[in-house]
TrEMBL record:
The chain crosses the membrane at residues 31-50, 62-82, 88-108, 115-136, 142-163, 172-193. It is found in: Cell membrane. It is a multi-pass membrane protein. The keyword Cell membrane applies. This is Trimeric intracellular cation channel family protein. InterPro entries: Gly_transporter. Keywords: Cell membrane, Membrane, Transmembrane, Transmembrane helix.
Length: 202
């Protein structure tokens, strides 16, 4: 039940980040719904296809679609009446990244896959929706920027798995990994944290 509720929360948060990105790109309401939907289900769809989970989660459970529509409508109403806070998109994306990365890792973990595969599946689940959103709205994908992004997901999932291996209860390990992803991503946003940049001379 907790995994399901967190999955719904991730859907809602990523849908909101899609609305914000679509609004900045000047799309009409249909375009906003499309971007919100792609952002919300992109990572989970890739996860299910790679793990051969059929039907795909949002086809199997239509409630996910309702959550996307409700979150999209709420976000549209909010930005219509209130000023959009600075870094609102990045903050929404940070929370969505954390939720989807961790839940994606748990889905892969339940398949008893190798540790490296669990980390990769979790990271793709967290990052793929945002990648599609950024490409469709003509922005440099956050995944490819120099700030902490995909590496935050990798670190959080790795911490989750290591804590479990050390005997920490799964729930607490999950929350610790989730908080680490958010903390690292916020450090990238507000603290300018980043991985070393490769610079080649001409």
């Amino acid at each position: 039940m907790l995994l399901y509720l967190l999955d719904l929360a991730g859907i809602a948060v990523f849908a909101i980040s899609g609305v914000l990105a679509a609004g900045r790109a000047g799309l009409d309401w249909l375009g906003v719904v499309v971007i919100a939907s792609v952002t919300a289900v992109g990572g989970g769809t890739l996860r299910d296809l790679l793990l051969d989970r059929h039907p795909v989660f949002w086809i199997r459970e239509v409630r996910y679609v309702y959550v996307i529509l409700a979150a999209t409508a709420a976000a549209i109403a909010w930005v219509h009446f209130f000023t959009l806070p600075e870094h609102a998109l990045a903050l929404a994306d940070a929370l969505g990244l954390a939720l989807f990365a961790m839940t994606g890792a748990q889905v892969a973990e339940e398949r008893r896959l190798p540790t490296l595969v669990v980390i990769l599946i979790g990271t793709m689940t967290g990052a793929a929706g945002g990648l599609l959103r950024d490409v469709l709205t003509d922005r440099v994908p956050l995944l490819l920027s120099s700030g902490i992004y995909g590496s935050a997901a990798i670190a959080g999932i790795a911490a989750y798995l290591l804590l479990q291996a050390a005997g920490t209860p799964r729930r607490w390990a999950f929350h610790a990994g989730l908080l680490l992803v958010v903390a690292l991503r916020l450090g990238g946003i507000y603290g300018g944290w980043h991985l070393p940049v490769l610079r080649l001379s001409a």
